[in-house]
Design brief:
This protein is of the alpha/beta class and 217 residues long. The protein has helices spanning 2-29, 58-65, 86-91, 106-118, 155-171, 186-189, and strands at residues 76-80, 98-103, 127-132, 144-150, 177-181, 196-204, 208-215. The structure holds S-adenosylmethionine. The site of S-adenosylmethionine (SAM) has 24 residues, from helix 3 and strand 2.
Length: 217
């Protein structure tokens, strides 16, 4: 009994620290990316594979981004389902040639662009843009080398987008790194074992899994 109440208060403390940390980073970067917007509020049909909006916590994004040292001459970063632009803002502080956010919701895109405009960051990338489009319609840039996936979509829709990336890799052979969160079985679920292999995996608070995956050589 005593143990349980101690565990609960430890969990509550962690939640509080997490909330304060998130809030602090929003203030530090001068952007508004917290919160949750449901599939219904985004106009998505239930079960069509498109996911709601919520951002990945800052700490998880930063650790995932730190696993790649981009080459400004060639590396292009894509956040699939970029929402309010948190990942795009942070990726822009790395020396990518280009950082692209792909997002279906027009209202999230408008807000993401305003986050990008006011973000207090030292932009290191060559250019940054948000594209308002269904990921299925987005022509995979032949020079894109880093793909960020934090639960943008699931099922058939996810498999289709990953297949489009595979087709681009076959047409334009290059090393591609996938930075994936909260999808522990990404390779198996998208049927990609023949061309992708895991590089590293870790878990983070609260209930977050992170994977670095790369194209096979
Ligand atoms: C969980 S959020 C991730 C947000 C962002 N990557 C981050 O971590 O801050 C998933 C996003 O994917 C977007 N999305 C869902 N289906 C999409 C599709 N078919 N094409 C483009 N974006 C989509 C949603 O609107 C939502 O903003």
């Amino acid at each position: 009994m005593c143990d349980t109440s101690l565990e609960m208060s430890w969990d509550q403390l962690r939640q509080m620290i997490q909330r304060v940390s998130e809030r602090t980073q929003e203030i530090r970067y001068g952007i508004k990316t917290s919160g949750w917007t449901s599939e219904e509020a985004l106009g998505y049909k239930k079960g069509d594979g498109r996911n709601h909006y919520t951002p990945l916590p800052y700490a998880a994004i930063k650790r995932l981004l730190s696993t790649v040292i981009p080459d400004k001459q060639k590396d292009v970063f894509v956040d699939w389902g970029s929402g309010l632009g948190r990942v795009v803002v942070l990726a822009s502080t790395y020396s990518y040639r280009e950082v692209i956010g792909v997002e279906f919701s027009p209202s999230l895109c408008v807000a993401a662009k305003s986050n990008l405009d006011r973000a207090r960051v030292k932009q290191q990338c060559g250019s940054v843009r948000i594209v308002n489009i269904d990921a299925r319609e987005f022509a995979v840039p032949p020079d894109s080398t880093v793909m960020f996936f934090f639960n943008p979509f699931r099922g058939q829709l996810l498999t289709q987008v990953v297949k489009q990336i595979r087709d681009s890799w076959i047409d334009h052979p290059r090393s591609i790194t996938f930075l994936v969160s909260n999808h522990a079985d990404f390779i198996a679920d998208t049927g990609s074992a023949d061309w992708l292999s895991p590089v590293s995996f870790w878990s983070a608070y609260p209930h977050i899994s992170c994977s670095v995956i790369r194209t096979r050589v």
